[in-house]
Specification:
Rossmann fold, Arc Repressor Mutant, subunit A, 5-stranded parallel beta sheet, elongated, DNA-binding, DNA-binding response regulator
Length: 228
């Protein structure tokens, strides 16, 4: 089974503190995940039914319905991994959360890097298929490791080169314009010259030995197309 990529992984963040929700959402989206939010237990249950998330980051102290109750309800609806957040760090809280089906537990304040690490562990444990590589011809993409291999060898790709090659591979067979590539790889707010795409395509061709442009083809006046 081919793996999902991060943007296909849904994470639900449930907390009644706007600042905490915004902080987690911004960080997870920067990592490439698709993030949904809820600010109370009832909203969280509704969101779970609608999006069927892979991971739920759930605060214990919620208005109306406690995080414990929400945890119990979510486990009846989905196999999502639940990471509980609380300002408390007492053993009884941890035991109660885990007994209701929570998969992990973090006390506020917490390190965002630690949260990312725990999310990745939970994804691999609960959805082992996500850790598989996506193979396309002689290429394979390991989104978790942020690596692309060609003919069995891991390519040395800085972040932008990785993102560009990944984008081209995922859209293999399609002709993609420079402007579309810029929007999806560099971002909508990029204000530089679109000819930078040519420079980075040249880097990629050098990395994969595509001197005759048989893999990354130039479609004159239109853009680029990957053929594998």
């Amino acid at each position: 089974m081919a793996s999902l990529f991060k943007e296909q992984i849904n994470i639900l963040v449930v907390d009644d503190e706007q600042s905490i929700v915004d902080f987690i959402k911004m960080g997870l989206e920067a990592e490439g995940y698709t993030v949904h939010t809820a600010f109370d237990g009832y909203e969280a249950i509704k969101a779970v039914q609608e999006i069927n998330p892979h991971v739920v980051i759930l605060d214990i102290m919620l208005p109306g319905m406690s995080g414990y109750e929400v945890c119990s309800q979510i486990k009846k609806l989905t196999k999502a991994a639940i990471i509980m957040l609380t300002a408390k760090d007492e053993v009884d809280d941890l035991v109660k959360g885990l007994s209701l089906g929570a998969d992990d537990y973090m006390s506020k304040p917490f390190s965002f890097k630690e949260l990312i690490a725990r999310i990745e562990v939970r994804l691999k444990s609960t959805f082992p298929e996500l850790s598989e590589t996506n193979t396309m011809g002689n290429f394979s993409i390991d989104d978790g490791a942020h690596e692309i291999s060609y003919n069995g060898n891991i390519l040395d790709l800085p972040p932008t080169q990785y993102n560009l090659l990944r984008y081209l591979l995922l859209n293999r067979g399609l002709v993609i314009s420079k402007s579309t590539i810029l929007e999806n790889v560099w971002g909508y707010d990029f204000n530089g010259d679109e000819n930078i795409v040519e420079v980075y395509v040249r880097y990629l061709r050098d990395k994969i030995g595509d001197k005759d442009h048989n893999i990354i083809k130039t479609v004159r006046g239109v853009g680029y197309k990957v053929v594998i």
